[in-house]
Amino acid sequence: MKKLSIPALAMLFVACSPKAPATYSTANSVPTIFPDYTDITIPCNIAPLNFLIEEQADAFITVLKSTSVEIVIKGSEVRIPKSKWNKLTNAPEISVQIFGYTDKQWTAYKPFKMTISDEIDPYISYRIIPVAVEAYEKLSIHQRSLTSFKENVVFANTMVHNNSQGTCINCHYYRNWETDNMLFHVRQYKGGTVLVLNGELHKVNMKTDSTLSAGVYPAWHPTHDYIALSNNRTHQSVHAASHDKLEVLDDISDLILYDIKNNTVSVIENDSCELENYPAWSADGKKLYYVSYRYEGGYGDKRKNEMFLAREDFHFNLYSKSFDPDTRTWGPVVMEYDAAAVDSSITWPRVSPDGTKLLACISTHGVFPLDQIVSDYIMFDLTSGSYRHVDELNSPFAESYHTWSSNGKWIVFSTRREDGVHTRLYFSHIDENGRFSKPFALPQRDPEFNREFLYAFNIPEFMKEPVHISPRQFASFISSTEATRSKYESKREK
Amino acid sequence: MAKARWILPVLLWIVLSFFSNEFLQKVEERSFFAFDLFWLRNFLYKPSGILSCCGAFLTQFLHIPWMGALIWVLLLTASAELTRKVFRIPNNLSLLSYIPASIFVTYNMTMGYIVYNLNIPGFFFLPVLGYLWAILTLSVLRKIQKPLALIMLTALLGFAGYYIAGFYAIVGIITAVIDIVLYSNCISCRIPTVTGALAAILLAPIAFVPTATYNLSTGWTIGMPEQIFSLSRSRMQLPIVAAMLFLLTMPLSRHFLNKLSGKPLSSIIQGLALAVTIAIPTVFWFRDDNFKAELQMINAVDNLEWENAIDIYSRLQKKHEKESSWQPTRVLVLLKDLALIKADKDGQLAFNFDDGSKIQKRDFNLPMSLQIGKELFFYYGIPGLCNRWCIEESVLSGWNNMTYKYMAMNAILQGNTCLAMKYIDKLGHTLFYRKWAKQQLELCGNNSFVSTTSPYDKILPLMCYDDKVCSDFDGCELFLTNHFNGPSPLNSTPLYDRVALLFAMKSKQSTLFWTKLFLYLDSNNPSKIDKYYQEAAYLFSINSRNEELLKSLPFDNNIKNIYNTFIDKASKVRNKNNEEARAIFPPNLRHTFYFYFYYINELQMF
Q1: Arithmetic mean of pLDDT, A258-266
Q2: Per-residue model confidence (pLDDT) at position B185
Q3: Please, are residues B566 and B589 in contact by the beta-carbon 8 Å criterion?
Q4: What would the pLDDT profile of B525-554 be if each residue is shown by its tens digit?
Q5: Is the CB of B381 inside 8 Å of chain A's CB atoms?
Q6: Where along chain A do its domains lie?
Q7: Any A CB within 8 A of B471 CB
């Protein structure tokens, strides 16, 4: 009896396993699936790309095939087992054929493929944020394994703040994609910049009497112990009736350099008429890129109000300054791209790890592309000086924060392409000719996740490893430690 | 007297169903429950989340107030009967068991404006569910007579209970320990119970530390009410603590109560228990006509019952007709004006009501925008700010039925089908909003249908202005006033001009009034100018001594007569404030633009 039962069960299993239909008609169109994973290039180590079939049919069968393995999945929700997916991705290409059953007949949709390409960093981190204006009661920084669906909290403000004292957290950043050296800012209650230096926790207050604010948007020097940061006085206002929800601007902003070893802050640029922002180091750390707009308006509330009225005239240009990290001396300001000349505004410059490309956001105006409908990508070839609009990445909605993977083969970026409001994370591969592949959404165990989730993802950063400090360690440290004040030091110029 | 055990719940149910239904509906509107795994998962990450989820599940039945009230009353009765049974309270002292239920009634019905200030899902049902959990814990543990089983079950109920019910589970475990130590026949069970309980109480909150993303200072009190705005923490937590203390002391007093049974003192205690059970909620029950009317009007506005909203205001005014000190709150006035506009009655009725700015009966900060911001901005055609307040509310106190509803309507209004479907889908998974969701789904992507369907048909014409960046930090009324008092859009619509005219009249500015009046006349081309526009025009013409206007405008004789009577009366009673004038002027003179212009001053806008 026992001997018979195993083959019988096996037969039953085989009999119950879905099979591709033997006879079917063919349709000329690629099926609509969500997220759109049709004809994309994916990393060889990415988590299974689960998706929903959004065609009208009574039943569906999906066949995923690579040179070594074939998987058949029944139903409109295609969830691919991890072990089988790993076998699929162990080949140059996966072909996907979907069959729909209507009117007692199977129809084969046009197959699509997933091209397997270079490895991607195994982790990313991002901030989960409500798309609110003032309230910031629920903010958290998460890390997510890209090779699986495992996600956990790095730190959440709910761990520290209480009903009467709020805490905001923002701008997490890693040195060279490694988590032993990282930072994020904590604002207001128990505020300070949390620095992890070689695995040790520190809390610093970078505001000095000679600088505008604590540090904001960071750029960690690739070879030396410096962090370039912007100083910003940020304001936001709501659009009364536009699809743009918010308008965010700084009425003052500067750039500072934080010297980690000496806990000192020095000014990089602080022209009172220039709104310098978004520092980004070149790959060798000998140049700092940033954006700036010249505004010569009034002061105080009047300045802020005038700026909101004149917001559409704000066109940020791309600049750079040379830097000698050994002597900490700065060269003169060089304009890299005159965006104002083409009525545009450039923001968020990020240089590729090999130092040959600079990817930035370009929009009609302003400094905060996330909250504009039209914000696209522009890429500069730093070897030839040429640039192009990256149409293959752009969508009708806002594309904003982006990061290069450590091998320079992938980017992760935030985009509102799905519904115009909730920012989602997408990936794209760049080939040797500098062309990006069709972007695809961060895979989720539940393919409907992006539709259901009402928070936004922002500040995606690649990581080579997970953060080793636990959320509770961060929380205890932040709650119990006062921030050390940084000292001001004068700038050194050539 | 023991019959009161059954009469009290029935009375409570009647009072709730017929006299506090608007409050129950508000509780339901500020809650959300969906048969949706994605949403339900959110409750698994925090101790007490499951109990909170059960609370949210039950809260949805308050949508039909009598049904929700019935469930709540049954739970309260169950809590009392269980207390009686578990602690073996003699029949002639049975009303003692109703004290916790009475405290829970007090907790919910003294809430008032605090209903806007609680951010724990299912807060209405949570205390009674927590109490039931605690008492059931005791009754389960009491049945176990084997030391090993007891230690294991105590620890298990402690850990699992803490995860399911938080603070209430800890209370249950402590009560069980006291009871078993005092009364269990199994002497060898005492130490295992205490050990198991201590392990659970001390370690359960710590066990969740590695994964906890909440503030650990709430560890042992997790599941207690939490507030958004600074309000004495004890204010809402005190009743819960009192009920739990009652539970904790019951094992101690059990023996004493049994001894009392049949003695004359027991009748006194029974009488006192009845008095306390009735008196505490009755004395502390939140009674405020303005609050009640606000809730009713918000409900009417949410259901597009504009005439009903006007009636509620009229009834309230009539009720306080003889109280010269009575004033409506600004929430009432703004909702009434909105209803008049939507019912196309602003020209005939705008000043037919008493005005005022009574401070709401609350002692904590609560922006008006968080009460009616989403409604006002949506119906006045400012979707950006409606969106803003829905999101702010969702961050502060979680998504609820109304925030989803307004976010969906807002997205439809702005033609963002993808976004609208996202919110509609959420309501599609609910018990009581799925029909509404289905109706809205038909509108998605069909812009021409939207423009002819209520409520969008009367909002789209108000969106004729050019987009602008704005802020309503100074309050929603001031924002709306500035918005409509600003330069009229080049392509303004008849409805926009009519609304702008009302705001101009409210502002009492002559130049602004004339500008808006001529725009209104030009775009609306009325066959007859409405009563209150005539009154305002007559008064401003007289004040500016503009004979030409007085001659050229077609004023009704009645307008002039009332003005003359009003001025005659006013000249006899000089230097009166709103309250004094209200007592002196009869309704026909009080409900005029003239009265508003001269006597409604120094209104506080929020």
Answers
A1: 96
A2: 80
A3: yes
A4: 999 999 999 999 999 999 988 888 788 888
A5: yes
A6: 24-117, 123-480
A7: yes
Q: B215 to chain A nearest CA, in Å?
A: 4
Model confidence pLDDT, tens digit, residues A367-379: 988 877 789 999 9
What pLDDT shows up at residue B245? 93
Q: Is A245 close to B469, i.e. CB distance below 8 A?
A: no
Whether B217 and chain A come into contact, CB under 8 Å, resolves to yes
B409/B395 Cα distance (integer angstroms):
19
Q: Give burial (CB, 10 Å; 0-12/13-18/19+) of B318.
A: exposed
B504 touches chain A (CB under 8 A): no
Angle, helix B147-165 to helix B49-59, in steps of 10 degrees: 60
Could you please state the CATH topology (level 3) that the domain comprising A123-480 is classified under.
Neuraminidase (2.120.10)
Mutate to test the interface with B, among A452, A453, A476 (most CBs of B within 10 A): A452
Between the CA atoms of B277, B280, B281 and B285, what dihedral angle is there, to the nearest 10 degrees?
Answer: 170
Using DSSP's 3-state secondary structure scheme, residue A105 falls into strand
Q: Residue B599 and residue B594: Cα distance in Å, rounded?
A: 8
Contact A239 B468 (CB under 8 A): yes
Q: pLDDT digits over B448-460, tens only?
A: 899 999 999 999 9
**Residues B116/B370, Cβ–Cβ less than 8 Å:** yes
Q: B324 and B582 in contact (C-beta within 8 Å)?
A: yes
Q: Judge contact between A186 and A475, C-beta under 8 A.
A: no
Return the pLDDT at B470: 86
Ramachandran category for residue A204: left, alpha or beta (phi over 0 → left; psi -120 to 50 → alpha): beta
Q: Report the predicted TM-score, pTM, of the whole model to 2 decimal places.
A: 0.92
Chosen from B232, B369, B395, B482 to mutate, greatest number of chain A CBs within 10 A: B395
Residues constituting chain A: 494
∠ CA B204-B205-B208, rounded to 5°: 90
ipTM for the whole predicted complex goes beyond 0.95: no
CATH value of A24-117 in 2.60.40.10, 1.20.120.1200, 3.40.50.720, 2.30.40.10: 2.60.40.10
Within the 127-186 window of chain A, which residues sit less than 8 Å (CB to CB) from chain B? 130-138, 140, 153, 156, 158-164
A368: three-class secondary structure by DSSP:
coil
A315-326 confidence digits (pLDDT tens): 999 999 999 999
Task: Evaluate whether A288 touches A268 at the Cβ level (below 8 Å).
Answer: yes
